[in-house]
Structure formats: structure tokens, C-alpha cells
Design goal:
Blueprint: H1 2-9, H2 15-20, H3 34-43, E1 46-53, E2 58-64, E3 69-76, E4 79-86, H4 97-102, E5 125-126, E6 129-130, E7 133-155, E8 160-183, E9 186-190, E10 207-215, E11 219-223, E12 233-237, E13 242-246, E14 252-261, E15 264-267
Antiparallel strand pairs: 1-2, 2-3, 3-4, 5-6, 7-8, 7-14, 8-9, 9-10, 10-11, 11-12, 12-13, 13-14, 14-15
């Protein structure tokens, strides 16, 4: 049953899950036009923090000082496509003890400060290794791409401008999710097809072995080999749940992880 629960967790980005993560006081703004929705956000106590641009949508971050809640708004075609809760650091806010009290939360049990205590340890076995930590991480990534552009360029041989096309290397951005399993001294990562370059090695059914694994009380670091040149580094913040993956520019991934904790799928 736990193996089934782990598999189903990869589908956590469904629309129903997104809706459940939308704060009730702004849930009605999903689908609204961005211009009017921004005014409504401000009227309800949210302060705009920053914006970043994705492949087909924009992501804006809003902070509510009263509820100490950070939210991410995805805007697509001029409308609010989704509103989801985000960790406080996404809104440039520090996570501290008063935040738990202000929002009515109890401080986590001491054992939960580090997410490596995942349910019944050793209940999942991979190649004879007892999995201590299982994560599903959602976010966006980048990879090298090729684009054809059209325009005018100078032709020195003909002493004139010619109209034509040229092929350029670009950076492509996309939504993606990764899965991670870790055990004593090692682990593995499952990559979506968008994070697998045409030239790659060492992968097995979409999983890559982790090496140089360092599991500290606050950070987890590890590497995996895509090929002889590209050996991305994984960094996971165990308190905020944020993950970054950096390889040869522009290969990368940034997101937030959920802990697979037995039959209970939740943020750690």
C-alpha cells in the first residue's frame, strides 16, 4: 500500500490539489482578470513582492503580514490561472518561532525538524536499501534548447542587409516534478523527460543514482551524472522544503518538496 501511495503522490499537482492549497480568502480570484484581481489582493491585505516569468505564464508572489501567509499567483492569458500557498522565504520573509504562534500552529515535534524521520523507516526497499526519505518536488526547470529566429543581418560580401533565419542556442523553461529516494549513504532521483538531455548515461528506467551524498541537519546535498560533462548538484533545504538542481548552464530546476510519510502525503 505504501508503494502505491508513493506512486500516487506524483499526481499531486492536479487541479483539485491546487485548489485545496488556495487560501479561502482569495480562492474566488482564481480565473479573474489580473488587473482587477491585483486590486482585490491589495484590498484583502496582500502586498506584492516580486514577479518572475515562466515559459507560458508569469508567477507573482504576495505576502499577507496579518496572516503571515505567502502565496504564488500564476497568471496566464491575462487571468489568474492558480493561487497556491508558498514558503515564507519565497516572499523574502524569514521563518521564525513567532510565525508558528501567529498562525495558530504548534511548533513541530523535535523529530520532525529533520524530514529524514519518514513514517516507518525501512518500509520501502530499493535494491536491498531501506529508503529513509522519500520526496516529490514540484517546480520549474530549465534546459538548453535550439530556436530558429528570423530577421535582418549584414552581408559583408554583398555590402547589404539580407533577410533570413539563423539557429541559436536558447534556454527553455517548463513546469516539472522530480522524485527522490534516499537511504544511508546513497539514493536515487527520478527525472521527467524534460530534464533528460539527448546525450545521457547511467540512467535506469528514469532513475539516476546519487553520489557524494551529504545529509546534514539543515541541508541535503548530492550529485548525479547525466553524462561525462554534466553532473548536476542537488541542494535541499530541510526546513523550507525548497530544492535546487544546478548543472551546466542553463540546466537547472527549482521547486518545493513534499514528504512521503507512510500513508500520509504532506509538506515537511
Amino acid at each position: 500500500m505504501k508503494a502505491v501511495a508513493f506512486t500516487l503522490a506524483a499526481m499531486a499537482a492536479s487541479s483539485s490539489a491546487v485548489q485545496a492549497q488556495t487560501p479561502g480568502d482569495i480562492r474566488d480570484l482564481v480565473g479573474a482578470r489580473a488587473a482587477g484581481a491585483e486590486t482585490a489582493m491589495q484590498a484583502r491585505g496582500y502586498m506584492f513582492v516580486k514577479t518572475r516569468t515562466g515559459d507560458d505564464r508569469k508567477y507573482s508572489y504576495w505576502w499577507n503580514a496579518r496572516t503571515r501567509q505567502c502565496v504564488t499567483v500564476a497568471t496566464m492569458d491575462g487571468r489568474y490561472d492558480s493561487i497556491t500557498t508558498s514558503p515564507a522565504p519565497d516572499c523574502n520573509q524569514r521563518v521564525n518561532a513567532p510565525e508558528y504562534r501567529d498562525r495558530g500552529f504548534q511548533r513541530p515535534d523535535a523529530r520532525r525538524e529533520s524530514p529524514s524521520y519518514a513514517g516507518e523507516r525501512g518500509s520501502v526497499q530499493v535494491s536491498g536499501n531501506a529508503v529513509d526519505l522519500g520526496l516529490v518536488c514540484f517546480g520549474d526547470g530549465q534546459r538548453p534548447g535550439v530556436a530558429t529566429t528570423y530577421g535582418w543581418s549584414w552581408n559583408s560580401k554583398r555590402d547589404r542587409y539580407d533577410y533570413g533565419n539563423r539557429t541559436e542556442m536558447t534556454s527553455q523553461q517548463f513546469d516539472a516534478s522530480v522524485m527522490i529516494q534516499m537511504w544511508d549513504g546513497g539514493g536515487r532521483i527520478s527525472l521527467p523527460k524534460k530534464l533528460i538531455p539527448p546525450v545521457h548515461s547511467r540512467g535506469s528506467d528514469g532513475w539516476w543514482d546519487l553520489y557524494d551524498v551529504e545529509a546534514g541537519p539543515d541541508l541535503i546535498r548530492a550529485k548525479y551524472r547525466l553524462n561525462g560533462m554534466n553532473k548536476p548538484t542537488i541542494t535541499i533545504n530541510r526546513r523550507s522544503g525548497q530544492i535546487t538542481i544546478r548543472g551546466l548552464d542553463p540546466y537547472g530546476f527549482r521547486g518545493t518538496c513534499d514528504l512521503i510519510d507512510g500513508d500520509d502525503h504532506r509538506r515537511f
